[in-house]
């Protein structure tokens, strides 16, 4: 039986504090508003924050799936615009240090719901731990979030370099977050590509900028997504523009086009 193709997007960034989870959630809602069936995996396994961002509580988390106590459908929580969220369990040390087999089991759980998803957004932890790397390399698209801080570009470069050199990932898309002007976003991309072009064999694409907007801060305080509660804000407009671009990315052709491929990539790592 031909499987339904799923766009798997890892949202990542070299350092914490760049607004990755905010980008993941608002992109997910904007895509759902366009009619896509979107699931967000909170893969920041040691420090879950999507449930906090949206004020959603769940009795069950990924941990229960890993322990075989329930399946993924029982864990998923409905969010705005019908997005579904798979919550991580905040601060659970064990989940921060999954072995490769447990990782594969986690992704296997996703293959069971593959026909019911159009887009899977994986909100990863910051940095370059094994857990981050295996999620990112298994995704078809890598969206790197950067901000206008010197360490953000440096850390993003370190992550791209590692993914390229050790895992063979060569295509990266970049979004600039919390920018003061559109030009600032372009300048950040140029800063990053100046070093990637010189030292790495990678394809970098700039997909846009999310402006600095007080509506985002107000939404976070209310534990809501800005796209949901301030739909006319500058940030919301930018998230919808980003969603349109993401929606136009080509769907991977088989066998990369379904969630089992995501599993296969992780299993290859186990067997290596």
UniProtKB/TrEMBL annotation:
A GO MF label: ATP binding
InterPro entries referenced in this protein's UniProt entry, alphabetically: FlhG, MinD_FleN, P-loop_NTPase, ParA/MinD_ATPase, YlxH/NBP35
Keywords: ATP-binding, Cell projection, Cilium, Flagellum, Nucleotide-binding
Organism: hydrothermal vent metagenome
GO cellular component: cytoplasmic side of plasma membrane; cytosol
Protein name: Flagellar synthesis regulator FleN
Pfam families with a match to the protein in the record: ParA
Origin organism lineage: unclassified sequences, metagenomes, ecological metagenomes
Keyword Nucleotide-binding assigned: yes
GO BP term, pick one: negative regulation of cell division
């Amino acid at each position: 039986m031909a499987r339904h193709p799923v766009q798997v997007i890892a949202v990542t960034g070299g350092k914490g504090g760049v607004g990755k989870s905010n980008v993941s959630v608002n992109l997910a809602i904007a895509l759902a508003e366009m009619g896509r069936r979107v699931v967000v995996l909170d893969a920041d396994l040691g420090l879950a924050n999507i449930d906090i961002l949206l004020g959603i509580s769940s009795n069950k988390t990924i941990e229960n799936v890993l322990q075989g106590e329930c399946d993924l459908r029982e864990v998923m929580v409905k969010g705005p615009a019908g997005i579904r969220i798979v919550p991580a369990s905040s601060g659970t040390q064990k989940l921060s240090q999954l072995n490769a087999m447990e990782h594969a089991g986690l992704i296997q759980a996703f293959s069971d719901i593959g026909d019911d998803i159009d887009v899977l957004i994986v909100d990863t932890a910051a940095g370059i731990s094994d857990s981050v790397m295996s999620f990112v390399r298994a995704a078809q698209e890598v969206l790197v979030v950067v901000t206008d801080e010197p360490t953000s570009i440096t850390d993003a470069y370190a992550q791209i370099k590692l993914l390229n050199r050790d895992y063979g990932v060569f295509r990266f898309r970049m979004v600039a977050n919390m920018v003061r002007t559109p030009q600032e976003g372009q300048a950040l991309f140029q800063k990053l590509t100046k070093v990637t072009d010189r030292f790495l064999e990678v394809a970098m694409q700039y997909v846009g900028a999310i402006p600095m907007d007080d509506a985002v801060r107000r939404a976070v305080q209310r534990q809501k997504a800005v796209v949901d509660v301030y739909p006319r804000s500058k940030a919301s407009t930018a998230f919808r523009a980003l969603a349109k671009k993401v929606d136009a990315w080509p769907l991977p052709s088989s066998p990369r086009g379904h969630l089992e491929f995501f599993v296969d990539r992780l299993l290859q790592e186990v067997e290596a």
